[in-house]
Amino acid sequence: MTSSDFHQIAITIWCDSPRMAIALKEVSQLPATPSRPRFASRLSIARMDLFGGLPAADLTMLENRLPVVRWPRGGEIPEPLLRPDHLFVVRAGRIAVFESTAAGHEVMTAILDDGNVYSTLGSATEPMIAALEDSAVSPLSGQSLEALMSRYPRLGRNLAQVLSERTSTLSETVALISEMRVEDRLRARLHQLADRFGVAAPEGIQLRLDLTHAQWASLVGASREAVTTGFSKLRGAGQITMDGRAITIPWHVVPPIVPEAPAHAAA
Known about the structure:
Elements: E1 6-8, E2 11-14, E3 21-24, E4 29-31, H1 56-65, E5 69-71, E6 86-92, E7 95-100, E8 106-112, E9 117-119, E10 128-131, E11 135-141, H2 142-151, H3 153-176, H4 182-197, E12 199-201, E13 204-207, H5 213-220, H6 224-236, E14 241-243, E15 246-250, H7 263-266
Antiparallel strand pairs: 1-4, 2-3, 5-11, 6-9, 6-11, 7-8, 7-10, 12-13, 13-15, 14-15
């Protein structure tokens, strides 16, 4: 393999003093990955909550310097996306995150889309992940992250907020899959995912996650056969309609949206 098969990534943050820079020696030898038409365009970091509040000029520089690792749907996990002591920022596609139960079953605890993160910071355990769609991910080492936070304390606050939201969603998920009946778990997970990935249509909220019954089984901690039966019961009760892998929650079963009370009213 020649040196042209690799590219070197360096992130440089300019300080206030002229001609002065802090070079974050995040010099990863990542295999160069040519662009492929099937991959969706990646989300600009300027549109991510994680980088909110950072100077536009520095975001442009960072956008051009961050590595992007392409991961085709169903493919093996690229080695750069398993490295320890890294933060991984999803730029495009959808990635499933799994946890293993005491009995050895894998439960899909989260679906990450563009703007979300997963992490190996402070942990030697490799993440259990899978690409549900053709995806793109930017790895950022712990050393680089520390340097960025030192320069931009706002980034630390943003990261804490992103991880807090993930923790809240995980707690909700644990409660949902604790329901006794599989159809109840399915209904709860469908509504949870519809809040995030659903698209409004004349007949209801559509979910086009393109998940197999085996993947839905992982989402609710049940067998594939039990999920197939659960979907049949939900269809029979008018709770959902299905067209292939696309699922629609009719408007009459969608919970009404309650507007948040103004802060002064709550006080």
